[in-house]
Amino acid sequence: MTFTDRIVVEIPPVLRGLTFDGQKGLVVHQTEGKKVDLTLADPSKFSSIEDAAKAWQTVFDAYKKERSLYPAVVGIESQDLQYGLGTNYDEACRAEGVSAIPTLPPSTNRGDVVRDKITLVTGGAQGFGEGIVRSLVEQGAFVFIADMNGDGAKALADKLNYEACITVAKSISVNVTDEASVEAMMDEVARETGGLDVFVSNAGVLRAGSVKSLALKDFQFVTSVDYTGFFICTKFASIQMALQNIASQIYFTDIIAISSKSGLEGSNKNGAYAGAKFGVIGLTQSFALELVVDNIKVNAICPGNFLDGPLWSDPKRGLFVQYLEAGKVPGAKTVADVRRFYESKVPMNRGCRTEDVMKALLYIVEQTYETGQAVPVTGGQVMLN
Ligand SMILES: NC(=O)c1ccc[n+]([C@@H]2O[C@H](COP(=O)([O-])OP(=O)(O)OC[C@H]3O[C@@H](n4cnc5c(N)ncnc54)[C@H](O)[C@@H]3O)[C@@H](O)[C@H]2O)c1
User: Fold this and answer.
1) Is residue 288 part of a domain?
2) Residues 29, 86: contact at Cβ < 8 Å?
3) Distance from the alpha carbon of residue 272 to the mean position of ligand 1, in angstroms
4) How many angstroms is it from 158 CA to the middle of ligand 1?
5) Are residues 149 and 258 in the same domain?
6) Is residue 131 located within the same domain as residue 150?
7) Domain boundary residue, one of 301, 323, 352
8) pLDDT tens for residues 89-103?
9) If I label 374, which of 48, 80, 145, 363 is the partner at 20 to 30 A Cα–Cα?
10) pLDDT score for 225
11) Is residue 328 one of the residues assigned to a domain?
């Protein structure tokens, strides 16, 4: 690989890769006006990114060995670029130095597989996405909350940061169907944290309707968010993840698509959604085959119905209300009747919850001998063949 005219956002993930500790890199934050501790050679002196990473790693490791410290601020010769390093976001912004002596031994708690990792969740402002964001923060991850609802994402990030008393989340306003918007989001990730370890493609929409009457624009809307959005986001996330892997060649990262049980079996009068969710699994398998060379694992999670979430339970626009009004559930007289009908379809007799999805997500991150899989979390409602 060679640096391109987008070198400003290509350097930070390569630097992050230099700090890889066996699980993750440090946070690499673009700064300015700080005293530079270590200047790395001009990238134009090397014929490939691989060569630059090799030379930089030698200088970097020598600095670390001599002082038992990471350089607080790294500069790049002839680029007018500098980066603060930190074990967390605030430390990287302060750029005052990080010990290179290992502290606590690794724990065997599954949640620790995301501790101090950089994660990004699209559609993170509400529903499953919000639950995933909260849970990742609880497990010690830093989370970019990326959502079209920028105000909702910001309110959630502010609340989480206030509660944690350090910066554990940042909001980004994004439309996953718009390539320029996603590229800008990933550029911001590169500048703020130097890359990411776990990307969760969760943003999704649903427009149910008969194939005989569903408007083409509704079909295309669902496809553009649920299917094309996953492609666009993976395109830009995988570039950064691949750059992070260059220095060590053992830096595993995860792309996780939130598909659905409707990605595993058809859904009556809901073809646009089920088709997109099936398609997401096809993309998952294909991207997994391609990105394995970069140590990027690509997997999908297929949750059952999140009956407590806003999609179903919103008192005005939720599916319970819509299905009651449309008479979709024979004999149902109340919202509670509709809910019971959907619960009774699940062998485990309840809707899917965020904590169920999180168990699958943490398993996927922990498991470094699997890729291209679609993990059902359906309470037994859909079983794999
Ligand atoms: N709710 C369920 O029962 C259920 C079941 C299985 C799978 N899923 C999947 O889980 C994911 C989340 O579902 P949910 O029910 O929590 O949804 P939700 O409607 O509660 O939240 C979706 C979020 O995505 C955001 N979003 C929508 N379009 C976007 C776009 N173009 N760009 C950026 N953000 C956008 C919204 O602003 C919202 O915050 C979806 O992919 C959905 O298909 C949901």
Assistant:
1) yes
2) yes
3) 15
4) 21
5) yes
6) yes
7) 301
8) 999 999 998 888 776
9) 145
10) 98
11) no
What local confidence, expressed as pLDDT, does residue 224 receive? 98
Ligand 1 centroid to Cα of residue 203, in Å, is 4
Question: Tens digits of per-residue pLDDT, 257-271?
Answer: 999 999 999 998 899
> pLDDT tens digits, residue range 298-330?
999 999 999 999 889 999 989 899 889 888 899
Answer yes or no: do 123 and 69 share one domain. Answer: no
Residue type, 258: I
Q: According to the model, what pLDDT value does residue 104 have?
A: 66
Closest atom of ligand 1 relative to the 176 alpha carbon: 32
Say how far apart CA 366 and CA 244 lie, in whole Å.
Answer: 18
Flag whether 308 is in a domain: no
- Residue 264: phi and psi, rounded to 5, are -115, -25
The span from the CA of 146 to the CA of 60, in Å, is 33
Same domain, yes or no, for 15 and 90?
yes
- Write down the catalytic residue from 64, 117, 261, 277: 277
Residues 73 and 140 in one domain: no
Q: Is the pLDDT of residue 107 over 90?
A: no
Pocket of ligand 1 (CB under 6 A): 122-123, 125-129, 147-149, 174-177, 202-205, 225, 229, 258, 260, 303, 305-306, 309-312
State in Å: Cα 317 to ligand 1 middle. Answer: 14
- Measured distance CA(222)–CA(35) in Å, rounded: 50
Q: Is position 227 annotated as part of the catalytic site?
A: no
Q: How many domains does the chain have?
A: 2
State the helix-helix crossing angle for 335-344 and 319-326, rounded to 10 degrees. 100
Asked whether the whole model's pTM tops 0.85, one would answer yes
> Of all protein residues, whose CA lies closest to atom 7 belonging to ligand 1?
260
Residues 128 and 77 in one domain: no
Residue of 89, 273, 323, 342 marked catalytic: 273
- Same domain as 76, residue 11: yes
Whether 84 and 166 share a structural domain:
no
Q: What would the DSSP string read from start to end of 295-352?
A: TEEEEEEEE---TTSHHHH-TTTSHHHHHHHHT-STT--SHHHHHHHHHHTSTT-S--
For residue 275, give its domain range: 110-301
User: What is the best residue among 223, 232, 311, 313 to mutate for testing ligand 1's pocket, by most ligand atoms within 8 Å of CB?
Assistant: 311
Q: Within a domain: residue 319?
A: no
Q: Which atom of ligand 1 is nearest to the CA of 181?
A: 32
Q: Whose CA is nearest to atom 42 of ligand 1?
A: 204
Which of these three, 240, 272, 301, is where a domain ends? 301
Q: Is 295 left (phi over 0), alpha (psi -120 to 50) or beta?
A: left
Does the annotation count 277 as an active-site position? yes
Ligand 1 atom with the shortest distance to the CA of 262? 6
330, two tokens: 């024979």
